[in-house]
Amino acid sequence: MLNLSKRSLLRLCLLPAVLLLTAFFFYPLVRIVGMSMHLPGFSLKEFDVAFNAVNLGITLKTFVIAGSVTMLCLLIGYPMAAFLTCVQPATRKLLLLCVVIPFLTSFLVRSYAWIVLLGDQGAINAALLRLGVIDEPLVLLYSRFGMMIGMVHVMLPMMVLPIFAAMHRIDPALWRAASSLGGGGVRTFLTVYLPQTAAGVRSGCVLVFIISLGFYITPAMLGHSRDVMLGNLIANNVENSLNFPFAAALALVLLVVTLIVYVALGGGKTGASPAAGDQVRPAASRWRVLAAVVPMRWRNRSPTVAWSGASWVRHSGVTRPSGGRWAQWALFGFGAMVCFYLMVPSIIVVIASFNGEDNLAFPPNRWSLRWYEFLLSDAQWAAAGLASLKIGIVSTLAAVTAGTFSAYGIARLGRSPEGRFAYAMVLAPMVIPAVVTALGAFAVLADWGLYGTLTGVVVMHTCLSIPLVVVVMVAAFAAFDPRLEMAAQSLGASRRYTFRRVMLPLLAPALLSALLFAFLHSFDELIMTSFIAGTQVVTVPTKMWENVRNQVDPAIAALSTLLILLPLLVLVFRRNPRGVTEQEGGGALSAAT
Predict the structure, then answer these.
(1) Would you put residue 359 in left (φ > 0), alpha (ψ -120 to 50) or beta?
(2) Which CATH number fits domain 4-592: 2.40.50.140, 3.60.20.10, 3.40.50.10540, 1.10.3720.10?
(3) Shortest CA distance to 339 belongs to which of 157, 201, 204?
(4) Cα–Cα distances in Å, from 363 out to 101, 127, 347?
(5) 150 with 111: CB under 8 angstroms?
(6) How many Cβ atoms from other residues are within 10 Å of residue 105's Cβ?
C-alpha cells in the first residue's frame, strides 16, 4: 500500500489535467444538455424536432453508413493484417509504412486526395477515357460511392493496426499444437486463432464505428447532399442557421447513441490496471492506436502466424500458407492491392501539386512549381501557418507537461479505483465525437469571452492532446522499473533529482513520441478549431477547409503535399535506436486496443 504522502503526491500529479478537462471538456458536455433543454427554463421542443421523421431518417442513415464502413473495413482489414504477419520483417516494415503514413496524414488531406482522383477531370476518369472504356466521365464524386470510398480509406488503418497487433502476439506453437491434434485449417482458425484476435477485431470495430458516427468532413467533401449525416446536420445548424439549441439537441442524441454503442460493443470493459498495460477501454481515436503501434519499432522477435483459408507452416522466421501457391498469391495480391489503395491518393496529390495551370487536372498538362511559390509568397497562408505553429507548440508543451504528470500518477496508482477512474476520465475526450465536444466548447468559450481567441484554441487543443500523451507515457511508466527510483532515493536523491537524472533519460524516447504526436494532432485539428476560432484565428486546416468548400484550388494540392511530409518527418525523428522496445510497445498497444 502507498503511504499517505506518496498517495497525496500522486493525486497532486493528476490535478492539472483533471482540472483542465473538468472545466473545458466535461462542463461543456453539461452545457450542451442545458442548451438543448433551454435551461434555466425547461423545454423539450428541440427534441420533438430532433425525433421527427426527417431527422430520424438522418439518424438511421448515419447508423447505416457507419455500419457499412465498419463492415467494409473489417472485411478488408482482417486479411490485410494477416498479410502483414506472414511476410519477412524487412518487407513488413515497408508495408507498415504504407498503413501508418496515411494513418498519420490529415483527414482533410486524404479526403481532398479523393477529389483529385474521383473528379470529372480526375485520375480515374482520365485513365478510363484514355483507355476507351468510357465515352464521358463517370459521376464518381459527390455521390454515396465516392463518400464510402473516402471514408473506408480514412478508417481502414484504424481497423488494420489493432487486428495486426493482436495477431502479432499470438504464439505460433498454438497453431502447430492444434494441427498436431488433428485440427484442420478452418477448424483451427475458428477455434484457436480467431478467438485470440477477437480483442483486436472488437477494438477496430469500436474505433471505426464510433468515429464514423461523428464524421462530417469526408461526407461534406465527397458525398451527395442527400447523404447528410448527424455530424453534418449539427455543423450546418451552428454555422449556417445559428440554431444552437437544436444543434445541442442533435449533439446530445449523438452523444447518448455513441456511449450506448461504445458500451454495447465492449468498449466499457476493463481488464487489468492501466499500469500493467493490459486491456482497458479502447478509445475512439486514431491517435491512441497510433501512439501504441509506432513505438513497436516494427521488429519481429518471434515467428508469427496468420491464416488465409489454409493452414500455415513456419518458414525462415515467418509463416507461409501450406495450402498451395494459390493461397500465397491470393493473400499477397490482396495485400498489394490494399497498400496501393492506401497510398495512391497521396501519390496522385503529390503529382497534381506540380500542375502549372489554373485548373486542377491529372495528369498535369504543364509542369510547374508555381503553386509552391504561391504558398510561400501568399501573406494569408503565411499567417495561417504561423498561427498553426504557435497553437501547436504551446498546446503541445502544455499537454505533455500535464499529461506526463497524470500518466505518472495513473501508472503508480495502478489497480486502485482511483487509478482506474483517473485513467477513464483522462481518456474520455477520445470517446466523444469531436463535433459534440466542439459544440460544447463553443458555448463555454463564448460565455467566458474566449471565443475567437488564440488562448481559447490553445486550451481546447491542449485538452484534446492530453489523452494522447497519457497513453504514450502510461506505457512508458509501466515499463519503467520502480526499483531504480527507490534505489536513487535510498542513496539520498530527492524526488526532483531522481526524476531529472534517473527517470527522464530513460523516458526521453517516449516523451519525444508524445511531443511529436501531440504537435501533429494539434496542427491537423480542424473540427474543434472551426467551431471556436471564429474569423480572428485562422489556421492551416481551417483555411484549407474554407478553400476546398469554395473551389478545387490547385494550391491545396501543393499544401497537401507539404502536409503529407509531416508524417514522414515524425517517423524519421521517432526512429531512435534507444527507443521503446517492442515489449514496451506491445504493452502500450494492449492498452490502446
Answers:
(1) beta
(2) 1.10.3720.10
(3) 157
(4) 23, 9, 12
(5) yes
(6) 26
Asked if residue 443 lies in contact with residue 31, where contact means CB atoms within 8 angstroms, the answer is yes
pTM for the predicted model, two decimal places: 0.80
Burial 161-171 (b: 16+ CB within 10 A, else e): bbbbbbbbbbe
| CA distances, 254 to each of 21, 212, 215 (Å) | 20, 11, 11
Nearest to 304 by CA among 163, 427, 101, 131: 163
**Which candidate, 294, 221, 219, places its Cα nearest to that of 592?**
294
Nearest to 205, CA basis, from 587, 467, 593: 593
Q: Which contacts (CB < 8 Å, 24+ apart) does range 256-263 have?
A: 257/59, 257/213, 258/210, 258/213, 258/214, 258/284, 258/431, 258/432, 258/433, 258/436, 259/431, 261/209, 261/210, 261/213, 262/206, 262/210, 262/431
Q: What is residue 535's three-state secondary structure?
A: coil
- Cell triple for 211: 468515429
Q: Determine the Cα–Cα distance for residues 414 and 478; give it in Å rounded to an integer.
A: 9
Cα–Cα distance, 147 to 142 (Å, whole number): 7
CB 46 within 8 A of CB 36: yes
Report the C-alpha gap between 528 and 315 in whole angstroms.
49
Q: Where are the domains of the chain?
A: 4-592
- Choose among 503, 410, 499: nearest CA to 11: 410
Q: Per residue of the chain (593 residues), give pLDDT as tens.
A: 445 567 788 888 899 999 999 999 999 999 999 999 988 888 889 999 989 999 999 999 999 999 999 999 999 999 999 898 888 888 888 888 888 888 778 778 888 888 888 888 777 888 888 888 888 888 888 888 889 999 999 999 989 988 998 888 877 777 667 666 666 667 777 777 788 888 889 888 988 998 888 888 888 888 888 888 988 899 888 888 788 899 999 999 988 888 888 887 765 553 334 444 343 344 444 444 444 444 443 333 333 443 333 344 443 344 444 445 677 788 888 989 999 999 888 888 888 888 877 777 667 778 888 888 888 888 999 999 999 999 999 999 999 999 999 998 898 888 788 888 889 899 888 888 888 999 999 999 999 999 999 999 999 999 999 998 998 888 888 877 777 777 877 777 777 777 777 777 888 888 888 888 899 889 889 999 999 998 889 999 999 888 887 766 778 888 888 888 877 776 666 554 343 333 333 333 333 33
- Strand ranges (E), 414-508: none
For residue 22, give the amino acid letter.
Answer: T
Amino acid at 431: V
Contact partners, residue 78, CB within 8 Å, separation at least 6: 159, 163, 197, 201
Nearest to 528 by CA among 447, 466, 437, 444: 437
**Which neighbouring-strand residues pair with 355?**
367
H-only helix segments in 86-229: 89-104, 107-118, 123-131, 144-168, 172-180, 185-188, 194-213, 217-222
Is the peptide bond preceding residue 541 cis, with omega within 30 degrees of 0?
A: no
Count Cβ atoms below 10 Å from residue 533 Cβ, excluding itself.
Answer: 22
CB neighbourhood size of 302 (10 A): 12
For the record, the C-alpha cell of 231 comes out as 455530424
| DSSP assignment letter at 355 | B
